[in-house]
Amino acid sequence: LTLIEDLRGDTVTGDAKELADLALFEDEASVRPTRAQYDADFEAAFATGRSLWSAHAEEIEQGMDAGRLRERLLGPFLSLLGFNLQFQRSHLSAGDGSFRITHLGWEGEDAPPMILDPSPPDARGERQRRSAHEEMQAYLNASTQHTWGIVSDGRVVRLVRDFHHTRTKGYVEFEIEHIFEASSVADFRAF
Fold first, then answer.
1. 3-state DSSP assignment of residue 51
2. 37 CB neighbour count, 10 Å cutoff
3. What is the pTM of this model?
């Protein structure tokens, strides 16, 4: 996880340096931000994310329902990061299976799959044979189109990649709750 540590700094070094190169950043119109624009957007995203978290933290603790979680917290939060959530009305198919992917990150075939659900990523529901993490992992392993996806319950955001181990889970997780409660700019930068 040295890569994540490298991303936490004001100046990114090491293997992560390429990931923070502004020459690789561009919006939908292929416009690249200046350093000043990037810094202003970053500060605004952090401040807005903190406000979103503080407005809904108590409700999340009490058990926010899935629709409200997606509409009030995760949708606006993920839009700060450049996502434009597309609700999936039906399951996605891959290989021989059908998977309960709730959203895609944007319109288009290259959009990452997402499972946005108030249950913790490793929890299995009464009518679910797999947790959200297991469902995403199974989808990614079966898909020829997607190699990574996102699972979130509002407290954490997990980046999951195709990973064909059955006993070990491979992912990177960011604790949104911790980032905003501790006002950790460095952790938000890494995220």
1. helix
2. 13
3. 0.88
Q: How far apart are CA 137 and CA 165, in angstroms?
A: 10
Q: Is 8 exposed, middle or buried (0-12, 13-18, 19+ CB in 10 A)?
A: middle
H or E stretch at 104:
strand 103-104
Residue 88, burial from CB neighbour count under 10 angstroms (0-12, 13-18, 19+): middle
Q: Confidence class of residue 1 from pLDDT cuts 50, 70 and 90?
A: low
37: tokens are: 């624009």
Nearest CA-CA partner of 109 in 91, 92, 97: 92
Pull the structure tokens for residue 26. Answer: 């561009």
- Distances from the Cα of 35 to the Cα of 18, 21, 32, 40, 108, angstroms: 15, 10, 10, 9, 29
| pLDDT tens digits, 110-147 | 899 999 999 999 998 777 789 999 999 999 999 999 99
pLDDT digits (tens, 9 = 90+) for 126-136: 777 899 999 99
> CB atoms < 10 A from the CB of 102, how many?
21
